[in-house]
User: Which sequence fits this backbone?
């Protein structure tokens, strides 16, 4: 089993979350701008994380990174997604970047795991809510940093059995 945590981070917040997740999974965290085709090919599990910008958009490095993933053979791989956002200032697009990753890869042949109930989150709207759940783990370090560790622990515990 090889798990790779791939993140896009402009201010360092998402990098910090990625490193926490990687540590709990015994995995390596790598910036999406630096990830190689070989690293993607060798990984059985891909944990993908992006901060959210503008109106629910991906972190800049993810635009090329998403194209790289779309071009790779992801069939049979397990993907889990996490996003970092601000539920107070951007309540109507909270963690919208997760939706871009999810919709960009939902037909890739990979199995996407790790949906999270919206209970306990305060926000108005998010493209990342599909069938009543977030498509991955939303993290709000700006307003709810006191909940981050517990949310990561619960999510890792949930996705671990699905990882190869």
Assistant:
């Amino acid at each position: 089993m090889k798990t790779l945590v791939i993140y896009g981070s402009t201010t360092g917040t998402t990098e910090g979350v990625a490193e926490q997740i990687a540590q709990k999974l015994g995995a390596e965290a790598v910036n999406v701008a630096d990830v190689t085709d070989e690293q993607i090919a060798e990984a059985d599990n891909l944990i993908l994380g992006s901060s959210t910008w503008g109106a629910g958009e991906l972190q800049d490095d993810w635009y090329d990174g998403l194209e790289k993933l779309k071009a790779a053979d992801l069939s049979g791989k397990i993907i889990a997604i996490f996003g970092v956002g601000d539920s107070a200032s951007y309540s109507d697009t909270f963690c919208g970047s997760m939706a871009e990753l999810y919709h960009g890869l939902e037909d890739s042949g990979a199995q996407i795991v790790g949906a999270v109930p919206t209970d306990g989150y305060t926000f108005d709207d998010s493209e990342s809510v599909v069938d009543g759940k977030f498509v991955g783990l939303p993290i709000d370090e700006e307003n709810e940093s006191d909940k981050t560790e517990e949310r990561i622990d619960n999510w890792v515990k949930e996705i671990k059995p699905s990882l190869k």
Notes: The first strand starts at residue 3 and ends at 8.
